[in-house]
Amino acid sequence: MIRFTKARPGPRFCSRSKDYFLNQAVKSAGRSPPASALDTLYRCLDEAEPRVVRFFLSLWQDQEDAVTYKELREAYLRGEITNKIYERWTYDYARFVREHLAREWEIAAKAAASDLAARYPQFLYEPSIEAAAAYIRRHSAELVTNVTQGQKQAINAAIAHLTGYTAVTPDEAAYILRPMVGLTMPQTVANARYFEHVRQSYLEAHPRCRPETASKKAAEAAARYAGRQHRYRAQNIARTELAFAYNAGAYGATKDAQERGYIGECVKVWVTADDERTCPVCGELDGRKASMDALFSIGKLMPPAHPSCRCAVAFEEIESTNLNPAP
Hints:
- The chain is built from 10 helices and 4 strands; from the N terminus they run βαααααααααβαββ.
- The protein has helices at 18-27, 37-66, 69-78, 83-112, 114-119, 131-165, 170-177, 185-205, 211-259, 280-285, and strands at 6-7, 266-271, 289-291, 312-318.
- Helix 2 packs antiparallel against helix 4 (83-112).
- The model is unreliable at 3-35 (pLDDT under 50).
């Protein structure tokens, strides 16, 4: 949620005293404290995150089904995936962003502007065509490039690991690699190591079994492990992307409202969850302020500070700076 209060000099309070900041912001107005930016962000995450997770899991399943064992055998033999596979993945992610993720970004951005909409009924904010649009276009292109390149590097790292440390045939490698499509590099390497651990343990427990049987059992176990890894990654991306869109929407709506004369100059305020899951970086940022176009001390214009960051940005209007108020 976006909240506006009059900024004025006063005693500095602890960077973690979020409740003090929110309560003091509205005392002079004689009304109850508004829901915090975090409250609105968390409601957005609770509603949209499961949906985005399902989108990603479905995408990766489709990509896994689309890549053939023949293509993976060839990739294993040549030491890397082909440009044909890479181009197909790029197209998949671009379509996914356009058809699914962009809509979720816009919903999150609008949720961030809900307080402005309540305070100024005539203020209409459309993040798909206004200040957040540039962010969405730029970020979507970066996301497609980064995710596709990361996926390519991840499978290539798994191929290198299987080639260098695990004696498997090309057919076995294809069977092992296929469930890894969509994972990160650390995840694919961890999965390949897990495969080897399970296979070796099975051979030790059943010394008379055929090596092919041990490899099959290990590949099945690694595939189940990959399923858990996919869900963890989907949750991580969903939370990060929704937080990005939410905070970009809050920032974009505030900039638009300033240009239209609804509010004056503002400072940004970094707000954290301030609980046992808050990392040291975000804990230090809680309550810190910066001008609208300035970066916070970690070099970010706004949250999130890192993947799965649960921080939000709020805004504090500087008193007597709105010289041409909107009617």
